Amino acid sequence: MTRYLIGVGVSVALVAGAACAAGEKGRNKEPVKPQEKTAVAVLESRSDSHVTGKATFHEASGKVTLSIEIKGAEPGSHAVHLHEKGDCSAPDGASAGGHWNPTHENHGKWGTAPFHRADIGNIEVGADGKGTITMTTDLWTIGGAPETDVVGKGIIVHAKADDFTTQPTGNAGGRVACGVVALAK
Fold first, then answer.
1. Quick one: which of 185, 116, 128, 118 has its CA closest to 157?
2. Which of 61, 108, 151, 167 could form a disulfide with 115 if both were Cys (CB 3.0 to 4.6 A apart)?
């Protein structure tokens, strides 16, 4: 009986020691960082325009930053919106469908209620035909829930500025560039 109790005691000590050692190893590890993700849309000319560019979405720490660069545009303000379909096959970009609006809000200006998740805003284009816009939000994800995921959506640059009032499009005019948001490789 004594041998049995000694054997059980040694076994318990070995298991406890191994658990302790494993716990110590776990404490020395770096905290796990959330995975960063990137998605890109190459903007191609539509409606007989010369507008081209690139939209890059980068997700880190629960926020998505969008950076858009365009060239070949007429100087002035041009609305930019996310559209419900990642389809730029139509010559006028109409195949991208309407604005992406998973929350069923009225069209408006980003950050001023009401607005919907497609309402990126206006990109300012200089005399050289180039323009950029950057924004960061926690309302989008890359590969997240359908109501927040930008992957698979169309991104459209319009011929005119968004007036942030006219429903449902902001009176932004024709579609001069279109791209499909896809995960970066």
1. 118
2. 108
In which residue are the tokens 């020691």 written? 17
- What whole-number distance in Å separates Cα of residue 46 and Cα of residue 38? 25
What pTM value is reported for the model? Answer: 0.80
pLDDT tens digit sequence for 154-173: 999 999 999 999 998 889 99
Burial (CB count <10 Å: 0-12, 13-18, 19+), residue 93? buried
95-141 residue pLDDT tens: 999 999 999 999 989 888 888 889 899 999 999 999 999 999 999 99
Please tell me the distance from the alpha carbon of residue 119 to that of residue 163, in angstroms, as a whole number: 11
DSSP collapsed to 3 states, the chain: CHHHHHHHHHHHHHHHHHHHHHHHHHHCCCCCCCCCEEEEEEEEECCCCCCEEEEEEEEECCEEEEEEEEECCCCEEEEEEEECCCCCCCCCCHHHCCECCCCCCCCCCCCCCCCCCCEEEEEEECCCCCEEEEEEECCCECCCCCCCECCCCEEEEECCCCCCCCCCCCCCCCEEEEEECEECC
